[in-house]
Design a protein that fits this description.
It contains 16 helices and 16 strands. By secondary structure, it is of the alpha/beta class. The strands form 4 sheets. A 6-stranded parallel beta sheet has the order 3-2-6-7-1-8, with helices on both faces. It has a 6-stranded parallel beta sheet with strand order 11-16-15-12-14-13, with helices on both faces. Helix 2 packs across helix 3, helix 6 packs across helix 9 and helix 12 packs antiparallel against helix 16.
Length: about 475
């Protein structure tokens, strides 16, 4: 319950005064967001005038959910001192107010087209590097190191990159980045990483603190440049400046970042939440087993060792059902939903999630034809709990939510992991993407409070045991 009090051990984190930035980690269901919200409330209660707490997260829908839940625990005066917004939206608004004329291009296909044109114009065919290489190099090497010229790029560190580039090859690939920048500027566009870097530059020149305190939820999903921007928004290090909560097991966007390298020092000011309040021990254990063999970090470059949490409740082991056909899977899901209804589980406490929007549309159509009321959870829109019906959403959309029962449907080969996202010649990018797909499945399963069903048809995903 979002509006309930936090437990006594978590309350220490909420009320503690830190001599700088602080970090709290913990597995899914350990109450990280609840701690973050209560901390925002506590810090806001001490502010006066126009001073504010910035509460930011990765996606618009998570920000909307947090905003709604803060209303349940905060008074009007506290709410007046808390601004909740996802970072991309904050950047757009700030840059617009600063007279920045370029707009952020979020459409992945439009960005790919510009990259494609830049590669063709640069005539770097002999290098035989895929478009994903250039996009990754831009996001993970050039922007984080602010290397927007050939001289700076040649001096860049490329540790951990799969493709080795000597000085001559760097000069060749730079042609692509030079053309990309020219084309984007000509169209009055920036990608979000580039926009964040330009935003950071403007703020640093102003040399002033924009917010007394910043709370960051889902910290594992922020890129290096995003965290550097948050550091600049907070101004010079001061008491209780930045409070970050996150969980590397839920890193679904491939952003593996070290806080200290972004100017956010948390050493000696960290805590781990170990009690899972949401998920049964059986579901938690199954979800963790999907991540077996993967090394995770504490968001500051150190390996997680004693990070396992434990659930307070027990229940059935997740039901794994593989069917020969899509119709067979649908019949199984419908029967299970009707059985839950007989046991007085409201439809709105059941959620079915899929990997893609197209698959989601198919399940909505199929379930509706079977007489089951459906309610789709869409981007940037809160779940209207007055509306009846089973909830349906993509796996990315369910992040931050919870339901009594989860159906993780269509877990077929080629769907999980999604074939098109792991098709890359970049070995490191491929490995990172497979890990992020496993993390996505972990996220989907750990939304369940009482029980989970994993279904597939045809050939099942290699992630499913």
């Amino acid at each position: 319950d979002w509006s309930s009090d936090v437990c006594s051990s978590d309350l220490k984190i909420v009320n503690k005064d830190y001599s700088g930035s602080a970090r709290t980690t913990g597995g899914a269901g350990t109450g990280k967001t609840v701690v973050a919200m209560h901390r925002a409330k506590r810090l806001a209660s001490k502010l006066t005038g126009r001073d504010k707490v910035l509460f930011t997260t990765f996606t618009a829908n998570l920000a909307a959910d947090i905003r709604e839940n803060l209303r349940k625990i905060c008074g009007s005066d506290e709410l007046r001192h808390i601004e909740v917004v996802n970072l991309d939206a904050w950047v757009s608004e700030y840059m617009r107010n600063a007279g920045y004329e370029a707009r952020i291009e979020y459409n992945t296909q439009k960005l790919r087209d510009i990259w494609d044109n830049a590669i063709n114009e640069a005539m770097t065919d002999e290098l035989d590097l895929p478009i994903e290489f250039y996009m990754d190099e831009w996001e993970r090497v050039i922007v984080p190191q602010h290397a927007f010229s050939i001289d700076k790029y040649i001096r860049c560190s490329r540790n951990g990159r799969g493709v080795r580039l000597d000085r001559q090859k760097r000069q060749q690939v730079w042609k692509v980045f030079e053309i990309y920048q020219r084309k984007m500027k000509a169209e009055g566009k920036r990608d979000v990483h580039w926009a964040m870097d330009e935003c950071r530059t403007i703020i640093k020149k102003q040399k002033k603190m924009l917010y007394h305190h910043i709370i960051v939820d889902e910290g594992q999903d922020f890129s290096r440049i995003a965290l550097e921007l948050i550091r600049s928004i907070a101004g010079e290090p001061h008491d209780n400046d930045i409070f970050i909560v996150g969980d590397a097991h839920q890193r679904i966007y491939r952003h593996k970042t070290v806080l200290s390298k972004c100017g956010i020092e948390v050493r000696g000011r960290s805590s781990i939440l170990r009690i899972n309040y949401r998920t049964t021990e059986e579901t938690r254990a199954y979800a963790f087993s999907i991540l077996s063999g993967i090394d995770f970090d504490n968001l500051d470059g150190e390996a997680l060792t004693n990070d396992r949490c434990q659930s307070l409740t027990h229940g059935e082991v997740p039901v794994v059902k593989h069917c020969r056909s899509a119709n067979g899977e649908l019949e199984f899901i419908v029967n299970q939903i009707k059985e839950l209804e007989k046991n007085n589980v409201p439809l709105k406490d059941i959620c079915l999630t899929t990997r893609t929007h197209n698959m989601l549309d198919n399940y909505i159509q199929a379930l509706t034809s079977q007489g089951i009321r459906c309610y789709e959870l869409k981007k940037e829109k809160n779940d209207d709990r007055k509306q009846d019906g089973i909830r349906l959403a993509t796996m990315h959309r369910v992040k931050g939510l919870e339901f009594q029962y989860m159906f993780v449907a269509g877990m077929n080969k080629g769907v999980m992991p999604l074939k098109q996202v792991i098709e890359t010649d970049e070995p490191i990018a491929k490995e990172e993407t497979i890990i992020s797909e496993k993390c996505l499945l972990y996220v989907a399963l750990t939304r369940a409070q009482k029980g989970a069903f994993i279904t597939s048809y045809g050939k099942k995903s290699e992630f499913i045991r």
